[in-house]
Amino acid sequence: MKPTLAQLVERRTVVGAVILRSLVRIRQGSSVRLYLTCIRNTLEAAMCLQNFPCQEVERHNKPEVEMKTSPELLLNPVVICRNEAEKCLIETSINSLRISLKVKQADELENILTKKFLRFLSMRAEAFEVLRRKPVQGYDISFLITNYHCEEMQKHKLIDFIVQFMEDIDKEISELKLSVNTRGRLVATEFLKQFI
């Protein structure tokens, strides 16, 4: 049986929509890849940290990016944005590096899930060593890497950890959102069964 013109147009529209969705996913995937690659390259360039003793107190070594006692020891901060809702601030000094992340929050549910999840991680900051308990204002989570971290751990492993963390947090929040939506649907279905 020969398909009608309306069926051909409908099929073509459906195929076009599928291709368009695939292209959008590829573009979004490459956008994430470009964003993470840019952060990785910036971290590789910024992670040339060296020991620098405190100029005021003998035998003390404080992260200059936190203390900001000498402006000549600080480099210009770098902000890498994927969009308005998702960005990364990299602040560098001679002996420390602070990375602050703003995680994508598309709706109110993602906002709540992100805050709860990141608060959970911040409460366990000592297990991560480089995670700060309190993020920089305007960001969701911050990491502080000192020259001691670079000496104890390998630099490329630290960079891999930060980038992997950024990938995983997006996946984790998406899975949590899916789980909450599924559970909400089940609860609503059970509730509505009473009226049928």
UniProtKB/TrEMBL annotation:
It is found in: Cytoplasm, Cytoskeleton. GO terms for biological process: actin filament polymerization; Arp2/3 complex-mediated actin nucleation. Keywords: Actin-binding, Cytoplasm, Cytoskeleton. GO terms for cellular component: Arp2/3 protein complex. GO terms for molecular function: actin filament binding. Belongs to the ARPC4 family. This is Actin-related protein 2/3 complex subunit 4. It comes from Tagetes erecta.
